[in-house]
Prior knowledge:
By secondary structure, the protein is an alpha/beta fold. It is built from 8 helices and 17 strands.
Amino acid sequence: ALLAARFAVAAAHVLPPKRGRPVAFETPGGKLSEEACARAVLAGATRIVTKGMRYADGDEIRVRMMSRALAQKPGNDTLLYVPDDSSLSFAGAFGKAAKTLRDSGYCYDYVTSAVLTNEFGTSRYRTLFVPALTRSLPTPVFERLAKLAESGWTVLCEGGLPNAPGALRRDLSAKMKRGELRHGKGRFVAGSLRELVERPNPARRERLSGLAKVRMARFSARDGSWYFIHNPGKAAADLEGRFAGVGKVKSAVAMYVFSGRVDVLPAREDGTLRLTVPPTESLWAFVSPHRLKEER
């Protein structure tokens, strides 16, 4: 369900403003669990509509969780291509790529052939990941990849340059040296899944220790970045490092959803931050490269 939800969110993020819209998750009624609410925010929801539900005692948790999401803008800057023969599951190369990108600190949206070959918003995105394919790409899709690379994108291709009918693919393949090809202002890079996630590219990759223990969504803000972080485990998760949304952190605030606690987090001189997420807790963290007004 979460994977299918992320497809809807990706459409809202990637499509041009006149077509892309904020995504609302609607439930048939009754109570909405904190876990379900957290999964909706992680998928990228900015609205939750529950038929017949009134916010009463105990619902302040869901209010705290969603009220911050209402005003957020997408912070993803990588696209993961969904092969035409993929199903809505984490099976196969697509699912492995999705999990590896997530655990490696990439904040990404899904993109399909239909979206790639039509107009879509590209201002935030400069990295496209193509998982290992079981069949050739349609020629229009491969031509679109070439145009994106020519305009400055980095196209990461698992297992090699994708097969596609036509002379363009043959020409580019012949020019590729040691798994890399400069094409216009950008490039194609081919290699194994692990090699690709470690290769330098324009994506703002989160390099935080402990990242695999939590689920995280990044949102853009005027003076920094908002992060929604959920710890589904039974033990506390420690995140430590530099948050890619801002680079060098000078100020940070954590708002714990379930307990309602608000903490000002001390940033280190080197711009890194240490953040502890209690078991089964969710929090909103705001990180900024500027000093908080309260500190001035």
